Amino acid sequence: MELETLPRLEAGEYPGGLWYYEPHTYQPYRYVLGRVGRKPLVCIGINPSTAQPGALDPTLKSVERLAAANGFDSWIMFNVYPQRATDPNEMDRTPDPALCAENLRWLAAVLAETEPTMWAAWGTLIEKREYLPGLMRQMVALTREKNIPWVTFGKRSKKGHPHHPLYLRKDSTPEPFDVEEYLNTCF
């Protein structure tokens, strides 16, 4: 992906300070939500909820807490599919190509402008739609180009899926995660 085609990751003033938030207003989709920093823990979930700057849901409160407890200077929430849905069963049955392309552009922007550690955190929700593993592979390809490390927290599911942030202990620590092996083994 050419850098000149990437959007610019810009912090905005919202309740509680500076945030990354794309788009800047509430929409039925969200690409980026997180705190400003140089070395963020970038959490990859399946789809965004209604959370926004200053109004985090329980999942994002867990992400924020674990990032701080494990020495990261910030955190950013990203999702495999950017459509907001409080219930993953309400996600589109087929992916919207424009949303998917824009999601990848924003991920590439985050990777270009920070020194992230990627957190695999989608749980078993990746099984909700057949298209999700393919979209995940596209995201992983962007991180492979930059040799960005992947981690996970907590035990993996019986099928090998990484743990969802909502159900993690407060003292959880990151462990290396071979996302390529995971995708090849589980899908």
Question: What does this molecule look like?
Answer:
The structure is a single chain. With 187 residues, the chain is of the alpha/beta class. The chain has 4 helices and 8 strands. It is globular and about 40 Å long. Strand 1 and strand 2 form a beta hairpin. It starts with 10 loop residues before the first strand and ends with a helix.
Characteristics:
single chain, 187 residues, alpha/beta, 27% helix, 20% strand, globular, DUF1643
Quick structural overview:
InterPro entries: DUF1643. This protein is of the alpha/beta class and 187 residues long.
How far the N terminus sits from the C terminus, by CA atoms, comes to 25 Å
By DSSP, the count of extended strands is 8
Structural class, from secondary structure content?
alpha/beta
Integer tally of domains: 1
Rg of Cα set: 15 Å
User: Low-confidence segments, ≥5 residues, pLDDT <50?
Assistant: none
The SSE string, one letter per element, is EEEEHEHEHEEH
Shape: globular
Strand order of the largest sheet: 1-2-3-5-4-6-7-8
Q: Which range does the strand content fall in?
A: 15-25%
Largest sheet: 8 strands, mixed
Approximately how much helix is present in the residues? 25-40%
Protein name: DUF1643 domain-containing protein
